Sequence to fold (144 residues):
Amino acid sequence: MRALLLAALFFVATAVFGIARAGSQFESAAWQEACELSRYSCRSIKPPVVEYDETARMTGLLGYYLLGTRVVFLAVGLKPHAEYAVLVHEMVHYLQYVHAKYDPSVKLEKCFMESEAFSVSDQVAKRLGVPEMIRDGNLLDYGC
Fold:
C-alpha cells in the first residue's frame, strides 16, 4: 500500500510540477511494488540500478534487465505511467535472477519468467490506466 501511495504522489508531482521521472522516489516506489506484487523477498537485496537506453525503442524494447547484473534499462521517451509499469516489469526479472527461480537459457522457463513479470506489470498498468502496456498473458512475442 505504501508503494501505491508513493507512486500516486510521484505521478501528481510529475503532472503538476514537471518533475523528472528518474530518481529515488520513482525507483523506490517501483521497487516496493515489484517486491509486493511478485511476492519475492527483497529484505537483503539491493534494488537494481536504473539506466536509460536511447536505442532500445529502435529494437522494439521498452526496457530490459541485463542478466547477471544489477542494471535495468528503460527506453527513453516513455510516458511516466508506462515507464513505471515497464520498470516494475524489469525489476521482477531482476528478482527472478537474484532468487535463481528460473534458467533463462531454457525456452520454457523464459516463458514462465515473462508470464510472471507480465502478471505483475499488467496489474500496475491496469491500475494506472495504461492499456497499451497490458499483455494479458499474450507471450507470442517471446516465442511462447
